[in-house]
């Protein structure tokens, strides 16, 4: 798919901008602070209903405005798809697809597919497990929209259960009488989430390995993905092998239930849920060693890039071309990795690239440019052979 | 901001559920422009609610007097109790005219985040009603969300030893709706709860 037209109203620094776009690579070029990233961030927002830079919606609305609107016309297998999102901080957002309102914003998830790579993604390798869980869950929802419901229900049950555990010691009577009820919900939803994550990691692993080999060049160690769980799994954390069946939801629910029973006393003492997918981690391997703590800075960068390119390849293998967004990354890459990334960028149906300096972007990607500055953004294309 | 009394009225109205600042302002100015007799009736209605409406001593539905209209009605069956979260759920079920038993209003659902546990609901009162053996069936009609489901599961476990018939309202497709518009969770539930058609 590709974005044919993008319109923003009061989104980030943009009061209003209308921008026509084309398939293929396009470079957004302009000085720092002119709003290049804000334009491509809006495309990412349509895919995940979240931003890669901030966690809440409030910073997305231009200072002084009450709401922001992101409106995009996309082409998806020769069909027009018009998506409009009204961002209302503190209230429910509203989403329309082809001019009809969706009952819930999260029903948009999975419709617009995009993969965004930005300097912030280094945190996928070096940051907390929460970053990697969010990475997995976002990809999960993009491939299987039904899981958005499972994910949000799991979070809610977790909050309820933690609230109960926290008050359990102080409360009068047998406050834990209702704990069993929440346990039932937790293991049911947790089992589904775990099963889906394990299957995803197994599907994603070969794509990440291939992308890493291409990015890091010949002679580099092989990249692998594993899943470390608070629920005992066979081969805990070791790299998963594609094609091997992963555990099913029902088995995982049973395992989760057992583990919760074992740690009940500890959970009551600490006032929180200690087992479940919310405490798990995606383990990145380079050769025999886990990447975290062992990978060099360059290796970490390559691995972060390979994770995102792996996503891109996986979604493409599922049968839908995602929009590739590369936010301010070429300047930080060396020649080899730049060339590897340029290969993928050229092959994508649409790639949106931001750069402060045009020379940082490989020459073959520069034919179409959006010049960003003084509150405007205009598409300029070198016409060739037409 | 408006002058004292008007702003006070807007603030009070804005505190009501479902009324935002804009609606509060609209209602306030509507009341200012209304006939004084109309406003008088509203004031009287509010005061009467305050003074006269109580909760039924048996089922905790809203009532004028000791017992609510349903508990007083001798034609209604005493062997089935339908458990709901709020009095407005009673009204919703009454509109169906399908149910001829009695109700029990819990006053909410279990939600630790809001500090609501079984002791804050009328669960003990329900158990007392079930003890004397006249009730043979319990229908749990809490909301089909996480908190409502948790409350239903808790109650089912609690009354299990009494040997009553306990059921939960079905969830599934809306009548008159289209299959294609149902979300996956509703459709999945509808599949789970499918019924055999007798030929």
From TrEMBL, chain A:
A Pfam family annotated for this UniProt entry: SMC_N
Cellular compartment(s): Cytoplasm
Binding site residues for ATP: 30-37
Source organism, top-level taxon: Bacteria
Keyword Cytoplasm annotated: yes
Chief localization: cytoplasm
Entry keyword set: ATP-binding, Cytoplasm, DNA damage, DNA repair, DNA replication, DNA-binding, Nucleotide-binding, SOS response
Domain RecF/RecN/SMC N-terminal: 2-355
GO cellular component, one term: cytoplasm
A GO molecular-function annotation: single-stranded DNA binding
UniProt GO BP: DNA replication; DNA synthesis involved in DNA repair; double-strand break repair; SOS response
Gene3D superfamilies assigned to the protein according to its UniProt record, in alphabetical order: P-loop containing nucleotide triphosphate hydrolases (3.40.50.300), RecF/RecN/SMC, N-terminal domain (1.20.1050.90)
Family: Belongs to the RecF family.
Protein role: The RecF protein is involved in DNA metabolism; it is required for DNA replication and normal SOS inducibility. RecF binds preferentially to single-stranded, linear DNA. It also seems to bind ATP.
Entry protein name: DNA replication and repair protein RecF
Natural source organism: Geodermatophilus saharensis
Taxonomic path: Bacteria, Bacillati, Actinomycetota, Actinomycetes, Geodermatophilales
TrEMBL record, chain B:
UniProt key word Nucleus: no
GO-annotated biological processes: DNA recombination; DNA repair
Function: May play a role in DNA repair. It seems to be involved in an RecBC-independent recombinational process of DNA repair. It may act with RecF and RecO.
The protein, known as: Recombination protein RecR
Record bears the keyword Zinc: yes
NCBIfam families: recR
Keywords in alphabetical order: DNA damage, DNA recombination, DNA repair, Metal-binding, Zinc, Zinc-finger
Domain Toprim per the UniProt entry, residue ranges: 79-174
InterPro entries (alphabetical): DNA_Rcmb_RecR (IPR000093), Rcmb_RecR (IPR023627), Rcmb_RecR_Znf (IPR015967), TOPRIM_dom (IPR006171), TOPRIM_RecR (IPR034137)
Family statement drawn from the similarity comment of this UniProt entry: Belongs to the RecR family.
PROSITE patterns for this protein: RECR, TOPRIM
A molecular-function term among this protein's GO annotations: zinc ion binding
Taxonomy, superkingdom: Bacteria
Species this protein is from: Geodermatophilus saharensis
């Amino acid at each position: 798919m590709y974005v044919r037209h993008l319109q923003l109203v009061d989104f980030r620094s943009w009061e209003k901008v209308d921008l026509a776009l084309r398939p293929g690579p396009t470079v957004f070029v302009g000085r720092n602070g002119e709003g290049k990233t804000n334009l491509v961030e809006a495309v990412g927002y349509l895919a995940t209903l979240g931003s890669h830079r901030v966690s809440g919606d409030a910073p997305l609305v231009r200072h002084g405005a009450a709401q922001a609107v992101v409106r995009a016309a996309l082409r998806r297998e020769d069909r027009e798809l018009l998506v409009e999102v009204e961002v209302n901080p503190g209230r429910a957002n509203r989403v329309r697809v082809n001019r009809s309102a969706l009952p819930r914003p999260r029903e948009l998830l999975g419709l617009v597919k995009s993969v965004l790579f930005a300097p912030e993604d280094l945190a996928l390798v070096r940051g907390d497990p929460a970053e990697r869980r969010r990475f997995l869950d976002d990809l999960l929802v993009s491939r299987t929209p039904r899981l958005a419901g499972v994910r949000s229900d799991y979070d809610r049950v977790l909050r309820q259960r933690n609230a109960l555990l926290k008050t359990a010691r102080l409360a009068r009577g047998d406050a834990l009488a209702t704990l069993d009820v929440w346990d039932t919900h937790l293991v049911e939803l947790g089992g589904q989430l775990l099963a889906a994550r394990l299957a995803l990691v197994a599907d994603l692993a070969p794509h990440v390995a291939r992308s890493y080999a291409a990015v890091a060049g010949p002679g580099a160690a092989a990249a692998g993905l594993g899943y470390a769980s608070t629920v005992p799994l066979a081969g805990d954390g070791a790299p998963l092998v594609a094609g091997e069946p992963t555990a099913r939801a029902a088995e995982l629910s049973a395992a989760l239930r057992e583990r919760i029973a074992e740690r009940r006393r500890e959970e009551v003492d600490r006032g929180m849920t200690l087992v479940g997918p919310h405490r798990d981690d995606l383990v990145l391997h380079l050769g025999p060693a886990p990447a975290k703590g062992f990978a060099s800075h360059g290796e970490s960068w390559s691995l972060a890039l390979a994770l995102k390119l792996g996503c891109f390849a996986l979604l493409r293998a599922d049968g839908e071309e995602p929009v590739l967004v590369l936010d301010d990354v070429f300047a930080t890459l060396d020649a080899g990795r730049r060339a590897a990334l340029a290969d993928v960028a050229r092959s994508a149906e649409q790639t949106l690239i931001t750069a402060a300096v045009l020379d940082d972007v490989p020459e073959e990607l520069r034919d179409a440019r959006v010049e960003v500055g003084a509150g405007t953004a205009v598409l300029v294309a070198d016409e060739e052979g037409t | 901001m408006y002058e004292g009394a008007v702003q006070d009225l807007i603030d009070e109205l804005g505190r009501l559920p479902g009324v935002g600042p804009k609606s509060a302002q609209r209602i306030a100015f509507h009341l200012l422009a209304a006939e004084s007799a109309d406003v008088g009736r509203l004031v009287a209605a509010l005061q009467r609610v305050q003074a006269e409406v109580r909760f039924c001593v048996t089922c905790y539905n809203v009532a004028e007097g000791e017992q609510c209209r349903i508990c007083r009605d001798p034609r209604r069956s005493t062997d089935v109790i339908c458990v709901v979260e709020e009095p407005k759920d009673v009204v919703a079920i009454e509109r169906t005219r399908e149910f001829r038993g009695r109700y029990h209003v819990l006053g909410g659902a279990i939600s630790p985040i809001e500090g609501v546990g079984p002791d804050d609901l009328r669960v003990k009162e329900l158990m007392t009603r079930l003890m004397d053996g006249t009730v043979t069936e319990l229908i749990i009609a809490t909301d089909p969300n996480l908190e409502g489901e948790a409350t239903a599961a808790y109650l089912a476990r609690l009354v299990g030893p009494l040997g009553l018939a306990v059921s939960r309202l079905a969830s599934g497709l809306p009548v008159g709706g289209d299959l294609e518009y149902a979300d996956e969770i509703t459709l999945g539930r509808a599949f789970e709860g499918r019924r055999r058609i007798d030929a």
